Structure formats: C-alpha cells, structure tokens
C-alpha cells in the first residue's frame, strides 16, 4: 500500500523517511506501516539519541533508548538519520547548569561526541551534529554552549564528529595511474577528483582515500555519517536564515567538516511559503557547497479540528515543501516528524493545534498523503 519512498527514490531523492517515537513500537498497525520500505526507507529516533538519554550523568552512557530505532533500521533495511549531538534542549542539568570554562566544556562536548559516534559507527547515514543554535529572532541562541564557547562550539562539534567517525574506506583508483599527475602527492588540488584534505597525510601510492562524494556507498561500506547542522524556521528566508548562512560560513572558514543543512520544516497550514520561495532559500545553502534536506516536516493546523478545505490546503502546503526539494539540485531527502496524527509532538507543544501529519489517528491516508504521492 505504501509508495512514498519508492516514488521519492524514482524522483531522485535519497530517502523519504519518518521519525519514530520509541514508545510506539508495540502498536501493530503503526509498525506495519513503518516497516513498509516502499513507504519509508529512512527513520530517525524521536528522542532516544538526545543527550539526556545517552549521557544522563557525566561519564555514564546509556544506549538502551537510542538503540531502539537504530536496531529497527537495521532489521528493516532502512537508512538511519541520527539525531542529535550539540543541542541546548533535552540536555541534562549537569551540562546545562555546570560551571564550565572553555577547556572543560570543550572536553565535555568532545567526550560526548566521541563516545556516541563510536557506538553508532557504521549505522548512521547522517548525524545532526549541531541542532538549533539560532534563536527565533535570528540571534545566537543563549545556550550554555554559546555563553562559554561563543560560536566556537560549532567547529568544535564538527571537528569532534570527524575525529570520532572518519571515513575509513580504502579505494583503489579506478583510472589508470598513468593518467594521474606525478608525483602522486603533489599538488592535491590538481587531482582529477575531490580529495579529502584531512586524509592527505595518509596517502601513499597506489592507494587513495577518496571522499564519500566520489563513490556512492551504503553505510554498510563503513562510510562516515554525513554531518549536518539542523534547525527550524529556516524556511521563511528572514533573519534566522541569515544567521544560519553565517554559521555555515563560520564552520567552513574554520576548516571544519559540514556536509549538509537540515530544514526541520515545522510549518503551519496556510502560512507555508510557496514552492518557489522555498526553493530560493534552499539554494542559499546549496550555493555554499553543502547539501540540504527536509528533516522534521509537519504542517499543523492552527485551528482544530480542520475542515475539508483546510485538509486540502495542508496537502498543497506539503506539495510545496516536497516540490521545492525536487526543484533544487542538492536537496537530497525528505523526512516527516512522525506519520500518524495519533503520535505527534504538536498537540502537547502547541496547545490547540495539531493534525500535522500524513495519516490520521486511525491510520487513514489524509488528503496530504494523496497530494504528496501524486506530486511524486
Ligand atoms: C521533539 C519530540 O518530538 C518530542 O517528543 C520531545 O518531547 C521534544 O522534542 N526539533 C527537534 C526535535 O530537533 O528533536 C524535536 O522533537 C522537535 C523540534
């Protein structure tokens, strides 16, 4: 019955996915839709990989909750997006309220990332390395990370992610060695393919370590996770978008490895930007040389319950968001933040709002589902 992922792949996306609430896995109806690879070929833990789950006390790592969805992905053959490392929210008090200086907080971040990435090594297609560093007015968010480290917590986090999960795949060059500049090691910029600068010290002929971009691999091939910055309300192309562009610049200027920017896509029926406006804002980031993806899409009704017209508008809004991704080269995937209105975070976080997803609470397909599938 499912087809969103199959169609999305045919349309050129790398995945069509959903988050999975760790508490939902006993619901048989839920699980039968979730497991359908034609519907969802990528999943992400809704809460289990957040800092308060993984390291509730300093030095005590607990992967039991984080592993629930990671194991599901492996059993079902789905890609796993991993979420999330450096984030002000769902951050245990020992980090949030600690009296840190630059050195001690850097150590805390690096230790967390090193342990967590090693635990999940080879399993994650993406890691959301930093989440929500901007506030709603387009300023730096006032978090413990920013107060102690200023913007440096961005490159610190991305460098730590690379150190803990480097690309380890060794390739023999497909082309004859004679076509390569000689000597092989000089200068790297003249090589006919992108070489990852951090690997250059390890180069010795006749082997090269190529960047993941050169060859399409599955995570099973031991490719590192792509490293993402992830945030919400980037869709409106305002001050928050501006500061996020600046953040990507800061990360890149520091020489830190960022592969992508995640647009969470927590949007509102009737005030979702147009397909063209959304494509324009996605391109602000692909122009910086990073890929983009929609990572947490839900489009909520501000007035409940929605009437038939509102459900149609919701479908159009979903089509605009997905359509913008199809329009932009470098927009590589689409993930919804849950698929059934039975289990959405919206009503508890935005009281009086809801019904933001593609299936209703009885697992019936909504007009939004039809709109998305017919766009694909
Ligand atoms: C939400 C979950 O859906 C809720 O269950 C939890 O109580 C709070 O977090 N941005 C993010 C996600 O990056 O991790 C958030 O998930 C939603 C907003």
From TrEMBL:
The keyword Secreted applies. It catalyses: Endohydrolysis of (1->4)-beta-D-xylosidic linkages in xylans. Pathway: Glycan degradation; xylan degradation. It is an enzyme of class 3 (hydrolase). The lineage of its organism: Eukaryota, Fungi, Dikarya, Ascomycota, Pezizomycotina. This is Beta-xylanase. It comes from the Eukaryota. GO terms for molecular function: cellulose binding; endo-1,4-beta-xylanase activity. Keywords: Carbohydrate metabolism, Glycosidase, Hydrolase, Polysaccharide degradation, Secreted, Signal, Xylan degradation.
């Amino acid at each position: 019955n499912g087809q969103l992922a199959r169609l999305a792949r045919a349309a050129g996306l790398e995945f069509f996915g959903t988050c999975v609430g760790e508490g939902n896995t006993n619901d048989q109806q839920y699980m039968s839709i979730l497991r359908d690879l034609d519907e969802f070929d990528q999943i992400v833990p809704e809460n289990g990989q957040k800092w308060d789950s993984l390291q509730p006390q300093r030095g005590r790592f607990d992967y039991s909750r984080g592993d629930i969805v990671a194991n599901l992905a492996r059993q079902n053959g789905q890609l796993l997006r991993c979420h999330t490392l450096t984030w002000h929210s769902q951050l245990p008090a020992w980090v949030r309220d600690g009296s840190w200086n630059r050195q001690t907080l850097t150590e805390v971040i690096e230790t967390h990332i090193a342990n967590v990435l090693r635990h999940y090594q080879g399993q994650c297609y993406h890691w959301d390395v930093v989440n929500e560093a901007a506030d709603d007015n387009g300023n730096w968010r006032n978090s413990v990370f920013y107060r102690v480290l200023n913007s440096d917590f961005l490159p610190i986090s991305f460098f730590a992610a690379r150190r803990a999960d480097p690309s380890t795949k060794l390739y023999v060059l497909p082309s004859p060695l004679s076509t390569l500049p000689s000597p092989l090691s000089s200068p790297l910029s003249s090589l006919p393919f992108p070489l990852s600068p951090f690997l250059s010290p390890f180069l010795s002929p006749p082997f090269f370590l190529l960047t993941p971009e050169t060859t399409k691999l599955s995570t099973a091939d031991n490719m590192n996770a792509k490293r993402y910055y992830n945030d919400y309300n980037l869709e409106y192309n305002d001050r928050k978008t501006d500061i996020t562009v600046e953040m990507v610049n800061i990360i890149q200027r520091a020489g830190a490895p960022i592969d992508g920017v995640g647009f969470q896509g927590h949007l509102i029926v009737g005030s979702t930007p147009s397909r063209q406006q959304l494509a324009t804002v996605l391109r602000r980031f692909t122009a910086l040389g990073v890929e983009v993806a929609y990572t947490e899409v839900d489009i909520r009704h501000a007035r409940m319950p929605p009437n038939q017209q509102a459900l149609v508008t919701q479908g159009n809004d979903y089509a605009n968001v997905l359509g913008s991704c199809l329009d932009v080269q470098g927009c590589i995937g689409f993930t919804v933040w849950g698929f059934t209105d039975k289990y959405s975070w919206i009503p508890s976080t935005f009281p009086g709002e809801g019904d933001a997803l593609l299936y209703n609470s009885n697992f019936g397909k909504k007009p939004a589902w039809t709109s998305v599938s017919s766009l694909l």
